[in-house]
Amino acid sequence: MPAKGKHRRPKSSTITRGFVAAGTGGAAIALPLFGATGAHAAETAAPAAAPQAVTAAATSAAPAQKAAPRTYTVVAGDHLSKIAHDKNVKGGWKKLYEDNRQVIGEDPALILPGMKLTLGAKSTAAPAKPKAEDTKDSEARASRSEARAEAPAQAAAPKTSGSGFTAPVDAGVTTPYRASGSSWSSGYHTGVDFSASSGTPVKAVGAGTVVSAGWSGSYGNEVVIKHEDGNYSQYAHLSSLAVSSGQTVSGGQQIGLSGSTGNSTGPHLHFEIRTSPSYGADIDPLAYLRQHGVSV
User: Fold this and answer.
1) Catalytic: 237?
2) Which structural domains are found in the chain, ordered by start?
3) Annotated catalytic residue: which of 227, 268, 270, 292?
4) How far apart are CA 261 and CA 268, in angstroms?
């Protein structure tokens, strides 16, 4: 029989270390601690993976986007060289023409206001339809060209001076030499302008050798001739050319037709006399012609 006043201290049960009591009131439920810890780990791992899966799916679903090609609408006074320079077209005016050939046509010098050109990419636009007045002008030029081809003997003989020199066209001067203004990069007009409508025959002012014939930026189609006295004559904004580089010409010989190619506000002939073939070597062209017996 146990002694009075002494009580045995009960031993702690080892099972309580693995459980936690939960509940309310007098009842309690023992839950294993390792089970709760495992569940918590599973719950925290799942949300971490979800954003990565969404991001990967969104990335794979997004299509690669390319920058849309730029377009430019031609305005009066434009030429391909100017547009290519102003819009930073890689490859210059030749690339611009190649990409838009079906819109422009066979002559890169003849672009019309309203044409829509693609910059830096191949154009898929339909060929441009010229305005009624442009069509009439083209038909008139074609008609004049056919008439000259069919009846060359009927063409008027050029009027030359005793020295073999002549005026470049049979027309009056509209803009004189050295006229000042912001329209010219040098600050002044480096030649004279003759009021020649499109298709007017342009003649070499004197005998010489063609040093260049073709496209020349803001001058459009031009011809430059070296004369026997060492000076050079330039004929700009031509609609077509009748000579080529290296060819020998005589005074009064037709070298092309006037037009409005390049940086031009309308049909006319820009004419210069230079001491060298390049821009910036200009002298008074009318004084030069008068020294050679030409009345202008």
Assistant:
1) no
2) 70-119 (3.10.350.10), 158-291 (2.70.70.10)
3) 268
4) 10
